[in-house]
């Protein structure tokens, strides 16, 4: 059979079964959250808007981890963007025309983690496969929350096509967040660990 | 029947495959690059897996990532679409080794047809007429002269390391041949670091006629008629149609019979297309075989009332072809225009956000596309954004229908080649069916 023996068949990586018009049930909190643990606070978003207005940009797009921020001058809503929420922000004094903000929550159906107070360095998966915390079912996890790690330290294994790939940390610091569960299928770019640098 | 299929592709063909799966009750898995997170195929698939960054080499051409995605989503089969890995025998092999059905022919057949000169030899042995030419490379002037006389002027001197139209010279007689031969060799040395050349009969105004075939896993093969794809620019097809205005009933029978025979001999299964060059005197010669579903498959679907992608899936799942060649009917005339995100005059690519979109509809109009209002056409992939297909009873009516369809198609925010297509559809030669692969050269002058 094509499946490996020890895999616990977890939920699919992402449920992308949206139909047009279906609104994403993301949070509409004041900070743009995402499961990358990287976000912009309200004050940071306000700063960005002011910068964009001040510098007379017509369009501004920022993408980081699973988070994307798109600002467009002119306030025209684009139709059929089912996973977006538009926030109307009145222009700063002296500016003509509203600046529309469209924030895109990541398409992943995974629940957003609790808001972080600090920016974490996110180690993302470089390959598609199955995530394992340890080298074997009986071995100890490579790392746990709170561990100090150096860049290059093996954090986990991702199994792809029967090969065990050791994933090294690309930063030094403390393991502050583990975004995935043992045995969970992961995709390219999926956040695995949050490291407090 | 398969329960779940992974589509190893993107854009309109990925959507096409998803629609076929939906109709068959099969679940779908989309794979995508980071640049395609908002792509239509990702939105409509049941599951989606990001397999890499934007560049194709690291995503849509990345075999380990795609196979891994297939494993973690537990699919039964992979449909490779067209382009990308669809004719990669190694990909088909890996898939097979991982017990995932590859929706296409066997890796052995893919490999055989992938080597162009090997394919020619195989087809020749299977009774398919091939372009008369030299057996191997021409090592000296004397041989060149002898071979050219045997083949018959005019001849084409082709660099073996060339391709896509490069490294070719025409010679109409003995004198021209001697010069052309020597020049071609030195040019090839400089351009390809390989001075090897061979000779082929030169066909001045060929028409590109291809035959669609379908074979099940039990040896049954049928053909679904021809498509004419002569309107091309730099070997990229712009407009395709079925039937061809130059192919009579008898010629269709003959070409179809030869195509089916050849497929049976090489053990071909699933969907495929055999491409021929049709000379003005009615003779036709094998060019190459494509062992996959093709971009222009919809024109065949319209005139045969069939679903080729569904047929591919059924065949791969082990179903038998449940009709004979005699039961196949051809109805009316179909034309397809490939709309690209390019400047219609300079052909400069035009990626960007589509701000207003109105797709044509109405009687006899079909649009295969992955664009939507507000969609950002990424700059990393080919520029095809939509295929507009029309069907009507006659060619004349189909042309009128296509004109009206394209006139009502609105795409703002990016440039498209719609104006170019409208010009072609109003060209007297095109309307009269006087086309060949040289048509666009004349048209663009």
Task: Report on the architecture of this protein.
The complex is a heterodimer of chains A (197) and B (445). Chain A is mainly beta and 197 residues long. Chain A contains 1 helix and 12 strands; from the N terminus they run αββββββββββββ. A 4-stranded antiparallel beta sheet of chain A has the order 1-2-4-3, with helices on one face. In chain A, a hairpin with a 2-residue loop joins β8 (154-160) and β9 (163-168). Chain B has helices spanning 11-24, 40-44, 63-72, 89-97, 107-114, 116-125, 141-151, 174-192, 249-266, 297-304, 308-316, 395-407, 418-425, 428-432, 439-444; strands at 4-7, 27-33, 47-52, 77-79, 101-102, 155-163, 166-171, 197-201, 207-215, 221-233, 236-242, 270-278, 284-290, 333-340, 352-353, 356-358, 365-369, 376-377, 384-392, 410-412. Chain B has an 8-stranded antiparallel beta sheet with strand order 13-12-9-10-11-14-19-17, with helices on both faces. A 5-stranded parallel beta sheet of chain B has the order 3-2-1-4-5. A 3-stranded antiparallel beta sheet of chain B has the order 7-6-8. The chains are: A mainly beta (197), B alpha+beta (445).
Apparent shape of chain A? elongated
Highest CATH level, the class of the largest domain in chain B: Alpha Beta
- Tell how many strands the DSSP assignment of chain A holds: 12
CATH level-1 class of the largest domain in chain A: Mainly Beta
Distance between the termini of chain B: 52 Å
How would you name the CATH homologous superfamily of the largest domain in chain B?
A: ATP-grasp fold, B domain
């Amino acid at each position: 059979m094509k499946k490996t023996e020890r895999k616990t068949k977890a939920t699919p990586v992402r449920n992308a079964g949206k139909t047009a018009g279906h609104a994403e049930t993301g949070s509409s909190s004041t900070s743009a959250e995402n499961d990358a643990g990287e976000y912009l606070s309200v004050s940071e978003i306000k700063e960005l808007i002011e910068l964009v207005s001040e510098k007379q940009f017509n369009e501004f797009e920022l993408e980081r981890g699973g988070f994307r921020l798109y600002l467009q001058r002119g306030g025209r809503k684009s139709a059929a963007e089912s996973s977006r929420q538009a926030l109307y922000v009145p222009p700063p004094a002296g500016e003509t025309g509203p600046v529309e903000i469209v924030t895109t929550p990541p398409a992943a159906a995974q629940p957003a983690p609790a808001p972080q107070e600090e920016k974490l360095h996110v180690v993302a998966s470089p390959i598609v496969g199955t995530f394992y915390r340890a080298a074997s079912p009986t071995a100890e996890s490579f790392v746990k929350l709170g561990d100090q790690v150096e860049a290059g330290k093996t954090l986990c294994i991702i199994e792809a096509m029967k090969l065990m790939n050791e994933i090294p940390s690309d930063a030094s610091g403390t393991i502050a967040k583990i975004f995935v569960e043992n045995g969970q299928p992961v995709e390219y770019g999926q956040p695995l660990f949050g490291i407090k640098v | 029947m398969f329960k779940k299929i992974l589509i190893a592709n993107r854009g309109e063909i990925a959507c096409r495959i998803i629609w076929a799966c939906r109709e068959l009750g099969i679940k779908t898995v989309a794979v995508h690059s980071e640049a395609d997170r908002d792509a239509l195929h990702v939105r409509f698939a049941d599951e989606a897996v990001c397999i890499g960054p934007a560049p194709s080499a690291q995503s849509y051409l990345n075999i380990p990532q795609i196979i891994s995605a297939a494993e973690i989503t537990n699919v039964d089969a992979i449909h490779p679409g067209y382009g990308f890995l669809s004719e990669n025998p190694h990909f088909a092999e890996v898939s097979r080794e991982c017990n995932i059905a590859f929706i296409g022919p066997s890796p052995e057949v893919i490999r055989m047809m992938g080597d162009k000169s090997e394919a020619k030899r195989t087809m020749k042995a299977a009774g398919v007429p091939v372009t008369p030419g030299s057996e191997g490379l021409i090592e000296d002037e004397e041989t060149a002269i002898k071979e050219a006389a045997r083949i018959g002027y005019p001849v084409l001197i082709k660099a073996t390391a060339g391709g896509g139209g490069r490294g070719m010279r025409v010679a109409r007689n003995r004198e021209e041949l001697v010069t052309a031969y020597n020049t071609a060799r030195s040019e090839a040395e400089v351009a390809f670091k390989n001075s090897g050349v061979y000779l082929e009969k030169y066909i001045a105004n060929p028409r590109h006629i291809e035959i669609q075939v379908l074979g099940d896993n039990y040896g049954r093969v049928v053909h679904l008629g021809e498509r004419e794809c002569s309107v091309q620019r730099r070997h990229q097809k712009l407009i395709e149609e079925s039937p061809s205005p130059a192919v009579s009933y008898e010629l269709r029978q003959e070409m179809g019979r030869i195509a089916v025979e050849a497929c049976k001999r090489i053990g071909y299964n699933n969907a495929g297309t055999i491409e021929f060059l049709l000379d003005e005197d009615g003779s036709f010669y094998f060019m190459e075989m494509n062992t996959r579903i093709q971009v222009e498959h919809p024109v065949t679907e319209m005139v045969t009332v069939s679903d080729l992608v569904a047929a591919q899936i059924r065949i791969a799942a082990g179903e038998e072809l449940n009709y004979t060649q005699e039961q196949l009917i051809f109805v009316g005339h179909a034309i397809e225009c490939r709309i690209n995100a390019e400047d219609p005059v300079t052909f400069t690519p035009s990626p960007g956000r589509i701000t207003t979109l109105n797709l044509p509809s109405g009687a006899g109009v079909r649009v295969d596309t992955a664009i939507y209002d507000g969609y950002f056409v990424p700059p990393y992939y080919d520029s095809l954004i939509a295929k507009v297909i029309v069907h009507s009873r006659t060619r004349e009516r189909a042309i009128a229908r296509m004109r009206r369809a394209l006139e009502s198609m609105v795409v703002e925010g990016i440039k498209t080649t719609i104006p170019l297509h409208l010009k072609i559809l109003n060209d007297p030669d095109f309307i009269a069916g006087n086309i060949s692969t040289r048509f666009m050269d004349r048209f663009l002058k």
